[in-house]
Amino acid sequence: MTIAKGYKKGTRYICTQGPLDKTVSDFWRMIWQEDVNVVSMTANIIEHGKKKCEKYWPDKVLKVADLIITFQNEMVFIDYTIRNFKIVKMGVSGHRVVRQYQYTAWPDHGVPTYPLALIEMMQNMKDFQKEQQKASPWVLHCSAGVGRSGTVMVLDSALEMSLAEGKVDVLGILYKMRQQRVNLIETVEQYIFVYRALVEYHFGDISCKPANEMVLYFNKLRQLDADKKKTGLEIQFEKLRQLETPFFQQKCLTALTPNNKNKNRDPYILPPDDGRPVLKTSPPSNYINAVYAYDYGVQNRFVVTQYPLPNTVPDFWQLLWDTGSSTIVVLNEINNKDELNPSAIWFIVSYWGLNDSFRNCLLNATRCLMQDIWNLLWYSVSEKGMIFPDVCKKEVTWNL
Known about the structure:
Distance between the termini: 61 Å
CATH superfamily of the largest domain: Protein tyrosine phosphatase superfamily
CATH class of the largest domain: Alpha Beta
Number of strands: 14
Number of helices: 10
Radius of gyration: 26 Å
Strand content: 15-25%
Mean pLDDT: 83
Low-confidence stretches: 342-346, 356-366, 379-400
Oligomer: single chain
Helix content: 25-40%
Order of helices and strands: EEHEEEEEEEHEHHHHEEHEEHHH
Shape: globular
CATH topology of the largest domain: Protein-Tyrosine Phosphatase, Chain A
């Protein structure tokens, strides 16, 4: 365990290793002794088949020495989980509330794909302490308590410094922290991640808004900026393009192998090796140009892929079988006479069969469903007073 100082503050962090079976009792005694109300866990219990940390929290109740820890509830998000606990010490009146933040999308010795989810979690930690009116030190742990935990500590202090002084010294912050706990931030990727997170925080657009403010927010974004001669929507979209992850061939090595190059419709739209579904067939035929995508609160909710090529139709069906997908959404026109898409006729014959009756039935049902959704959406936004451009008021034609 190391007690470390934050930006111009006293004790801000307690950095420790992930609890072992024989240290769970010590961990909870430390939580009570230091009056901690926030725990940051940047690890999973099992990673790559190895145990990284003991599951030190209860599903119901845990008794440790003279402490009783009771599980209250949890909230699961895509990248992290929040758990609330109540702690009672025998012989002491009252109870304390401890909230654990487990960041589940951080690979050991690696970095998260996107920084904003981590920043959001850290902001939630601060907001919780403000609600509790209790600025006790954060307890941070991963597995060894140096790499991922150190990254969070340095990022938090760097954000505090940048907001207070309008400048930041990541190297200086890390140097001082390493004098308190050795080897904080283990890899150059983690060091770079701190800079990426700072850039996204200050130059991105933290666009999360309360649902009841969305109409006003949208109308505001549609207004023209007098200086930039662009709407807020255009400015926001340009920021998004500036912050998008650059294309690195080394992240898409499987897609670039000689056996797989002809399976890519566009040579610049390739799936990274760490985010693509792997077909349950023998290499090299286990590749398909597809990626997993998140939905709100659900990892890998969608599988996004290109329109099948003539030589990838079997792979497409293998993908559906392997992932258990029962719904296909085709967003481009399916046309037997489409000369620009030579795979269309092949895909239609393989996919719909020679008899179009099933396809026509499905498309008619889809048209009805989409029209119902549009009518409901139009009614909802009209009631809220949202102003749409005239072009959106014209009849909607579902070209399916």
